[in-house]
Amino acid sequence: MAGQGEPCASPGVWNQTEPEPAAARLLSLCFLKTAGVWVPPMYLWVLGPIHLLYIHRHDKGYIQMSRLFKAKMVLGFALIILCTSSVSVTLWRIQQGTPQALEFLIHPTVWLTTMSFAVFLIHAERKKGVQASGVLFGYWLLCFLFPATSATQQASQGDFQSDPFRHLSPYLYLSLVMAQFALSCLADQPPLFPKRPPQANPCPKAGASFPSKAMFWWVSGLVWKGYRRPLGPKDLWSLGSENSSEELVSQLEKEWTRNRSATQRHTKATAFKRKGSHNKEAPEMETLLPKQRGQRGPLLRAIWQVGRSTFLLGTLSLIISDVFRFTVPKLLSLFLEFIGDPNTPAWKGYLLAMLMFLSACLQTLFEQQHMYRLKVLQMRLRTAVTGLVYRKVLALSSSSRKSSAVGDVVNLVSVDVQRLTESVTYLNGLWLPLIWIVVCFVYLWQLLGPSALTAIAVFVSLLPLNFFITKKRNHHQEEQMRQKDCRARLTSCILRNVRTVKYHGWEGAFLDRVLHIRTQELGALKTSSLLFSVSLVSFQVSTFLVALVVFAVHTLVAEENAMDAEKAFVTLTVLNILNKAQAFLPFSIHSVVQARVSFDRLAAFLSLEETDPGAVDSSPSRCAAGEDCISIQEGTFTWSQESAPCLHRINLTVPQGCLLAVVGPVGAGKSSLLSALLGELSKVEGSVSIKGPVAYVPQEAWVQNMSVVDNVCFGQELDAPWLETVLEACALWPDVDGFPAGVHTQTGEQGMNLSGGQKQRLSLARAVYRKAAVYLLDDPLAALDAHVGQHVFNRVIGPDGLLQGTTRILVTHALHVLPQADWIVVLEDGAIAEMGSFQELLHRKGALVGLLHGARQPGDGGEAETERPAGAKDPRGSAAGGRPEGGSERFVKLVPEKDSTASEAQTGLPLDDPEGPGQPKGKDRTQYGRVKATVYLTYLRAVGTPLCLYALFLFLCQQVASFCRGYWLSLWADDPTVDGQQTHAALRGWVFGLLGCLQAIGLFASMATVLLGGIQASSLLFRGLLWDVARSPIGFFERTPIGNLLNRFSKETDTVDVDIPDKLRSLLMYAFGLLEVGLVVTVATPLAVVAILPLLLLYAGFQSLYVASSCQLRRLESARYSYVCSHVAETFQGGPVVRAFRVQGPFVAQNDAHMDESQRVSFPRLVADRWLAANLELVGNGLVFAAAMCAVLSKAHLSPGLVGFSVSAALQVTQTLQWAVRSWTDLESSIVSVERLKDYAQTPKEAPWKPLTCAAHPPWPCRGQIEFRDFGLRYRPELPLAVRGVSFRINAGEKVGIVGRTGAGKSSLAGGLLRLVEAAEGGIWIDGVPIAQVGLHTLRSRVTIIPQDPTLFPGSLRMNLDMLHEHTDEAIWEVLETVQLRATVASLPGQLHYECTDQGDNLSVGQKQLLCLARALLRKTQILILDEATAAVDPGTERQMQAALGSWFAQCTVLLIAHRLRSVLDCARVLVMDEGQVAESGSPAQLLAQKGLFYRLAQESGLV
Q1: In the chain, how many H helices and how many E strands?
Q2: 986: nearest Cα among 552, 452, 448
Q3: pLDDT tens by residue, 318-329
Q4: What are the distances in angstroms from CA 1167 to CA 203, 374, 417, 1174?
């Protein structure tokens, strides 16, 4: 209700003929009174009904009458009574015959109805559970502000005696409204019976007041907690149901399914119409339509339908924010007009300063609400789309799985989903900057007239430069990315095959290769960084260039060409907005284009073929004895619709309780048969039925990254006695006994802490524990030692095993178990060749007899393959069949009573890591608290002290130039005008331009210095990391997960390359910019120092609180989201197992839980970002307010130019404040990478590669005599000896076999001979020289080892054969001839320069093994170690290798480490290892005659 004084009835008020300043028109008493009367009611009548509808639809429950509610109602009724009295007084006076203006009746009536509506809203909000009302908060604020202004003006005019009631009622009204406004700043109690169940740690937003919600103060508790101590998961709020995966994914899945079905129906209808209209292109269109339109459209519509309300509300907030954004320059124009007019009353200056402050604050609040809503939408979309991708992963068909690698799926979740959701923020940037540009040119035209058109010309002229820079920079960035990918692949290959690299002493060669690629990568990065600096300078200086040209044209061409403060500094303010618009538009376009690519990838993935749920007729009920449990009738199956069938006309019935063995040559379709039974293959024709629950053991064991017991139980309840039985039958008890935490030991990612055999037995145990009716076993014995395989078959699979009575289909290559099978199926070329019992098939002398004959080729004997560890671990894992005593007691405890280090010595499995300080753990350590100053010093030392000082000096110079340029412009604006012109305009313009150019040069030099210094530091830090890792012993790589190392070489290195220099540059720019603004305001208005000091304290407080909490939340978020990615990758790899066990539901719930945990961290972090932005922008707005208020106070002593310089500079600082803190936070988060790159600097290193003095001189060794003297070694200082008291001599040219059970120490002897592990006692002599006194590279170059797994590196064939470039092409062709590969290599494109892929995947296993043999032949050493080199090849390749070895190494000393006894039968001598000691020694015949350990091993292998 406006102050009641004289009515605004005079014609002169609204019909001005005399020109009047804008400030006088807008700030007249009549205008303010009119606005004060009509604005608040219009606000409430527009928003009130919408608010009522919203709270009616979102009922939260009933709130009891509280004191707060009662106070609001009392004040509301008091206001109603006051309005009623105003109407009554007016009516009474009219009745008394006193003339009254119509407004005295209309205004109180309008306010009476509006107040009544406001009271009704208060009551309705209580009934619907609204604790704090934003609509009423805004209403009471408007009710107070406008009338307060007019009342203040009216009070200054006096004339109280004429009408006391109308003078007093506004003050009484203002008192009541102010009380209502104060109450609206409080929150009511929560609803008595809430609609949603209460949570353990609810988000405080629900119970926060409206100012707290608007300013995000409700986050302050968490931020303060994070400042005082490290945040943990318990400190984070529970996730609201509206943000939970369950609700969000179900919404998106529902919309996606509906839209996709509609699109498919439309596509089919369109294709049908095209077919019917004799169009020959119809079939092509039928295939193109789904690809082009049928994928993107449904997903886009589904996402829009899920997130449109939040997006549109956020867009509305942004539009309102932009209204206030453009209000500020107008108010600045009025303010400078006020400063330039000495006759304007001071109250108008204070009012303009307050309005500028309020406009800036409202712009901040609405913009932050826009960002908050879109960031929440991003979070929700990330949850929904990730959940949709995960559900698709669980349903992918086999052909779809083959077309998508696990890395592609992880990229979808980690990269593409991220890009898609981040683009939400930039969607409004596609159209809103265009409106900004139009409004800015309207402003400029008003200020400068036609001269404003030159701004368009300058901006357009800058576009080609930016386009050229962007194009060139993209080219160099692509080159850098190519080199980075090449380096990452090579580094990954080296780390995965580090044992091979160490065996041969190739570290130096690979270091040179990596550093060569790194040099090229940094060269491209350096050029890209310089171009980036030019691009940034063009962006930063574009405002200056436009201003220079516009001012020059204006002063030269325009009639009224005098430059005043309003023209100069309002133009600069508008140009800054224009600059943001022209920068934001291309950035938004780039982001949306990137998002479109990711969107298409996601849509294509979600449209991939899924498994057919009806392919297999499965029944959950178990079948009775004698019934057919599995039946395939005329089954023809294919892996994909496009490929040829892999199984033809299969007819198979398996009765309940039958053990069916499936055998056949490689590629016959054995695994495909099991996949067909699981519904993984596309069924072309026929039928498949299975009765009862199914358990499946895949050929490649799939192990989850959880404990052993969780892997076995696989979501079922724990049955301890049954678990013990299962573990004992699967020969896992000895292994579990040796694990640090028993059955609770974590298996690691992809079972990295387990050997291959342990993973396979764990996979089998999972199936057995299931107690299923049907077991599909895909060659589970292949990865087991002979005796372990026999134990597992007897105790689990065989007729007397745990699975007796169940239906078992066993795919196997272990032909010695076939006599115990009930029925045998022989497959050939995807069809059943024959089937029957073992005896029947022997009598037929068909396909089975042929298989048995092939298995008896020399060097095989039908034994199972070796049980070799996964990755690069030493094969020392225990795998005995018996269960240790005390196993039952050990199981129920978390950590076994037995010393974990002792048990680890027996097993040799690096599952626990009790290392000393500085030793890397198996798991990456998490950083807590603030980063230490020493980390910054490490980085700055790497940059170089001179370069650091030079960069600071350059930043200071360019900021001084910026200050001088602004100050010079203020002097130009204050120059006196003579006849409408300024006398020194030309000089002012030239100096202004010169200062701007100097600033541009300084800016480029300073940014380029920082970026180039960052590249120099990155180069040094990377070299240090590479050297530290390369010099580490093999034990370091066994204990450190390869993922940790790859993370250092990829993500952390990339952070040091790109992020740290960029964040450091931003921080320095913002920091020096803030110093300049502080200096400007202080110089212009020294009185502002009084306000600046408290603002600085507030700024420092916000900065400290935010940086501490934000860094911790980022670390938690990164760790949590990695669980999501790992779980997706894990599920993708084990999809067939998950579907076979019918546990899709629990896996979906587990993924939802991981995603919710990730979002529990993401939500506080995004709100903390808004908290910082809102509060720091308010601090910046406070600086604007201080500068303006001090200018009003000192108006008599200040020139308009200086005030314009001060206030316009303060206006630019609002966002700089928060970006300075964010740059500091980003830098602190990124600088951790420097610490991580230095993690391995203090770890133990192996002996020198090439010492200054060496005991061996060429041509050592010339004979090859080896002597072990009381040799012993241990794998870590705190562990017992793994090999002890070994003493024997191997004569020159002697061939010696080394055998023993797994973990007996066979490979440890080879490791000791090559000094992969240093001797703990005793030593080894070669030709009389102690190897401890020989350099590692010298030793390893004189001893050749051919490992079991052939290893090739990415690069040419020649490089793989001759890593050190020591041999001629002729020598290489000669050895290729020897291994019978000359013709093969000659037929390859490029021949010796043929590029091998990673691991040599473009060559067969046999070819790779022969190439490794050729590599060994080239070295021509006197000592050869064969680590069962022929175990993984076919008989033909084995014969080739044996022939080559016999001819080339006839005179050499050969050590044959054998996992299969048949391999050592032709050795002159055999050493039998047991528990780290030589148990027996002699010729094979002698050892068999002794009937000792060797004889028992031969019995287990079926040789005797």
Answers
A1: 52, 24
A2: 552
A3: 999 999 999 999
A4: 11, 12, 21, 10
Q: Which helix (H) or strand (E) holds 650?
A: strand 647-655
Terminal C-alpha separation, the chain: 110
Which class for 1263: exposed (0-12), middle (13-18), buried (19 or more C-beta within 10 A)? middle
Determine contact, residues 1284/1309, Cβ cutoff 8 Å: no
Per-residue burial over 419-433, b = 16 or more CB atoms within 10 Å of its CB, e = otherwise: bbbbbbbbbbbeebb
Tell me the pLDDT tens digit for each residue of 1239-1296.
Answer: 888 888 887 877 766 666 677 788 888 888 888 888 777 778 888 888 888 888 888 8
- Secondary structure class of 687 (helix, strand, coil): strand
SS3 percent helix, strand, coil of the chain, rounded to 5, is: 65, 10, 25
Nearest Cα residue to 811 out of 700, 885, 707: 700
Residues 1156 and 526: their CA atoms lie apart, in Å, by 41
Residue 195 has pLDDT above 50, yes or no: yes
- Which letter does DSSP use for residue 643 in this model? S
R_g (Cα) of the chain, nearest Å: 40
Of residues 766 and 269, more confidently modeled: 766
Residue 204 phi, psi (nearest 5): -70, -5
Which pLDDT score, from 0 to 100, does residue 892 have? 38
Angstrom distances, CA of residue 1207 to CA of 339, 674, 929, 1217: 12, 77, 38, 16
The pair phi, psi for residue 823, each rounded to 5°, is -150, 145
Ramachandran angles phi, psi of 771, nearest 5°: 55, 50
Q: Is the peptide bond preceding residue 1259 cis, with omega within 30 degrees of 0?
A: yes
Listed range (724-738, 1036-1050, 1166-1180, 1437-1451) with the worst mean pLDDT: 1437-1451
Residues forming beta bridges with residue 1471, ordered by sequence position: 1298, 1481
| pLDDT band per the 50, 70, 90 thresholds, residue 854 | low
Under DSSP, is residue 129 helix (H, G, I), strand (E, B) or coil?
coil
User: Quick check: bond before 190 cis, omega within 30?
Assistant: no
> Which is nearest to 1474 in space by CA: 1242, 1216, 1285?
1285
Kind plus residue range of the DSSP H or E element containing 615: none
CA-nearest of 1212, 1205, 1191, 1213 to 966 is 1205
pLDDT at 360: 92
Between 777 and 107, the higher pLDDT residue = 777
**Residue 657 in tokens:** 């309780």
At a CB cut-off of 8 Å and minimum separation 6, what does 759 contact?
701, 703, 747, 751, 783, 870
CA distance 1376 to 1130: 41
What angle (nearest 5°) sits at the alpha carbon of residue 928, between those of residues 924 and 932?
Answer: 105
Least confident of 359-368, 745-754, 795-804: 745-754
What single string gives the DSSP state of each residue in 1262-1302? SS--EEEEEEEE-SSTTSPPSEEEEEEEE-TT-EEEEEEST
The backbone region for 861, taken as left when phi is positive above 0, alpha when psi lies in -120 to 50, beta otherwise, is left
pLDDT one-digit tens code per residue, 382-423: 999 999 999 998 888 887 877 777 777 887 888 888 888 988
Pick from 1019, 1477, 1436: which is nearest to 1270 by CA? 1477
Whether 69 and 183 have beta carbons less than 8 Å apart is answered as no
Q: What is the largest CA-CA distance in the chain?
A: 139
Three-state secondary structure call for residue 829: coil
Most confident of the ranges 84-93, 1012-1021, 1297-1306, 1456-1465: 1012-1021
Residues 6+ apart with CB under 8 A from 753: 745, 746, 747, 909, 910, 911, 922
Cβ neighbors of 611 (< 8 A, separation 6 or more) are 395, 396, 397, 398, 679, 680, 1139
- Please tell me whether residue 647 adopts helix, strand or coil conformation: strand
